[in-house]
Amino acid sequence: MKEKFVAYIKNLQNEITSALEEIDGKAKFKEDKWTREEGGGGQTRVIENGNVFEKGGVNISEVFGKLPESMQAYFGVKDADFFACGLSLVLHPKSPMVPTVHANWRYFEMYDAEGNTVDSWFGGGQDLTPYYLFEEDAKHFHQVCKIACDKHNEGFYETYKKRCDEYFWNSHREEARGIGGLFFDYLKSSVASAKDDKNIVTEMTMQDWYNFVTEVGNSFLECYLPIVERRKDLSYNEENKNWQEIRRGRYVEFNLVHDKGTLFGLKTNGRIESILMSLPPVVQWKYDHHPEKGSKEEKLVEVLKNPRSWV
Amino acid sequence: MKEKFVAYIKNLQNEITSALEEIDGKAKFKEDKWTREEGGGGQTRVIENGNVFEKGGVNISEVFGKLPESMQAYFGVKDADFFACGLSLVLHPKSPMVPTVHANWRYFEMYDAEGNTVDSWFGGGQDLTPYYLFEEDAKHFHQVCKIACDKHNEGFYETYKKRCDEYFWNSHREEARGIGGLFFDYLKSSVASAKDDKNIVTEMTMQDWYNFVTEVGNSFLECYLPIVERRKDLSYNEENKNWQEIRRGRYVEFNLVHDKGTLFGLKTNGRIESILMSLPPVVQWKYDHHPEKGSKEEKLVEVLKNPRSWV
Fold first, then answer.
1. Catalytic residue among B92, B102, B142, B152
2. With contact defined as beta carbons under 8 Å apart, do A258 and A170 qualify?
3. Of A304, B69, B250, B265, which sits most exposed with the smallest number of CB within 10 A?
4. Model confidence over A185-194: pLDDT tens digits?
5. B272 → chain A, closest CA residue
6. How far apart are CA B198 and CA A140, in angstroms?
7. Cα(B168)–Cα(A307) distance, rounded to whole angstroms?
8. How many CB atoms lie within 10 A of CB B114?
9. Residue B86 has pLDDT above 90, yes or no
10. A285/B273 touch (CB, cutoff 8 Å), yes or no
11. Can you tell me the ipTM of this complex?
């Protein structure tokens, strides 16, 4: 399974970076290969100062070895080995009319002292963070997510859409980071983690989950590119750009204060530059900024404070 | 003691904001009074878009009531009441030649169910974050800190300078946030927390600590203003400003990932805008940015990675 999934994310990284370069029309991804002292490494691909993308990264990594101490406590195990691989991407467009997007698809295995696999699971998802709300875009993004989910189980979309809203909640601001999408974790054969969701059948093999996660991964470009295409040439002014940069502040706040993946990476000696490539290129913090009553900016905040159903 | 210290910080807020308005010459502080539902409140004073200061706040607060649950665990107590007051300031100058400064002086009391005071202590400090290193400025800042400390105990400067270097350490970057200053906490009559420092006498009453902390507070303007005066009219170019904004990213990373005070505030329903006024106005994150070999920018990073003795 791990070789199959590694091959999948390598291929997907190529597909996604090619498609993004094509739509950008100017900037090219630069690749940094890195190795991890304790085992494994990755290929970070970064795009900067494009026509469409101000900054973004599409990274894959494959790491393994002794489970770090901080993770042992987290998973409640001792002296375990692990293997983890995944593709992680964040794109920050230049135009405030084009939403930021984030996606991640990953696979994890854990081994006992004798090297037997004791646990394995998939995780990931994809979510959209607009600066101006185009309902048509939100519906499109969620619709494509739902179609991918529905092929595997009619309950998946509802469940993983809800988990996404819960996970990307900037609790200190009482608002969502964006308008959501999908978020799932601990997808295992036994599906113990999903037992609270009565509409999810519990008969999923790891191969079934592989099929599901790769279906979602394959849907990413269809989720995002039509939105970029529709919005990339809209005009905008300095005020729109300021608003984007202020909202990007909330993105930074979420990633540095609440995001488990980021904090985990920062506290366990991950490759800092690959982890923090998720941070936007230019960000503003204004004291006590509030959008004007009835403005487009306020309409966005309204939706972030009260997550909606989009399909 | 609490009335005396509240009166002190109110007066100090006036003194500091007046002096800063004078040196800025353009912007004035705007005051927001706020109240805390559970007890107490504060006065936040914010300056923006000045000649010298791009953004800054000089805030006082006085809060009390039931000790929040998250704090009970932290202090290892149950059903306690508390009182906390303090002045907290951060100034982000426009010019990259003028350093950012942070200071905080605070007093805390804790009560049992019968309302008896079971514990009380002072905390605080002041530290400097330059974007370009002028050794003369670093020496001046530390020298004034040392003079204030020396009046109370010859061991204080060395001890609290070291604690400052340890506290403001951006561990995921393996560098200090700035060039340090003073940091102290849990200053109590018994001085239990300082028992590891053999050169600190243990005979300090709360009145002695009050005298020490206010001595440090009173030294703040003398620490900082001469530096502002010397650097505020130096010329700088876009490259210098970019460097400042990139370094401000590290300031954000420290405050949101590592700073106990910020995280505590965000997770205990503090007044978000007063807490996050510490964040710089405009920030950049560039992927894998490194200053040029032999540049002034590299010289700064060198000192941040290897904290120095300045006096």
1. B102
2. yes
3. B69
4. 999 986 544 4
5. A172
6. 67
7. 37
8. 6
9. yes
10. no
11. 0.91
Q: Summarize pLDDT for A223-233 with one digit per residue, the tens.
A: 999 999 999 99
- Could you list the beta-strand ranges (E) of B161-271: 169-170, 175-176, 180-187
- How sure is the predictor about A196, in pLDDT bands with cuts at 50, 70 and 90? low
Helix (H) or strand (E) holding B273: helix B272-275
Residue of A266, A267, A285 with shortest CB distance to B276: A285
User: At residue B197, does pLDDT exceed 80?
Assistant: no
Q: What is the mean pLDDT of residues A115-121?
A: 92
Instruction: Please enumerate, as own/partner, the contacts of B150-155 that have beta carbons within 8 Å and a separation of 24 or more.
Output: B151/B215, B152/B208, B152/B211, B152/B212, B152/B215, B153/B199, B153/B200, B153/B201, B153/B204, B153/B212, B154/B199, B155/B197, B155/B199, B155/B200, B155/B201
Residues of A in contact with B100 (CB under 8 A): none
- What's the mean per-residue pLDDT of chain B? 93
Q: Is A109 helix (H, G, I), strand (E, B) or coil?
A: strand
Cα gap A127→A104, rounded to integer Å: 9
Measured CA to CA, the distance from residue B108 to residue B303 in angstroms comes to 34
For A155-167, what is the mean pLDDT?
96
- Residue ranges and CATH numbers for the domains of chain B are 2-284 (3.40.1500.10)
- Which of B172, B238, B264 is most worth mutating to test chain A (most A CB atoms within 10 A of its CB)? B172
Residues of A in contact with B32 (CB under 8 A): 288
List residues of A with catalytic annotation: 102
Residue A79 pLDDT: 83
CA distance B157 to B149: 5
What's chain A's length in residues?
311
Question: Is the alpha carbon torsion for B114, B119, B120, B124 positive or negative?
Answer: negative
B244-303 pLDDT, tens per residue?
999 999 999 999 999 988 887 887 677 899 999 999 999 999 999 999 999 999 999 999
- Mean pLDDT of the B235-240 span: 98
Closest partner residue to B277 among A257, A266, A287, by Cβ?
Answer: A287
Structure tokens that stand for B192 in this block: 């239990």
Cβ–Cβ below 8 Å for A281 and B280: no
- The nearest alpha carbon in chain A to B245 belongs to A282
Q: Is pLDDT larger for residue A1 or for residue B190? A: A1
Question: In b/e form, how buried is each residue of A283-292, taking b as 16+ CB within 10 angstroms?
Answer: bbbbbeeebe
Chain B CB contacts of A92 under 8 Å are none
Confirm whether B102 is a catalytic residue.
yes
For residue A51, the model assigns a pLDDT of 98
Cα gap B63→B59, rounded to integer Å: 13
**Residue A35 β-bridge partners:** A41
Give the mean pLDDT of A78-86. 91
**Which of A301, A290, A90, A280 has the alpha carbon at shortest distance from B252?**
A280
Average pLDDT over residues B163-186: 96
Among chain B, residues having any CB pair with chain A shorter than 8 Å are 32, 46, 48, 55, 57, 172-173, 245, 249, 252-253, 256-257, 263, 266-267, 272-273, 276-277, 279-288
B133-158 per-position pLDDT tens digit: 999 999 999 999 999 999 999 999 99
B285 contacts A172? CB cut-off 8 A: no
Contact B9, B59 (CB under 8 A): no
Q: Are A41 and A65 a contacting pair, CB within 8 Å?
A: no
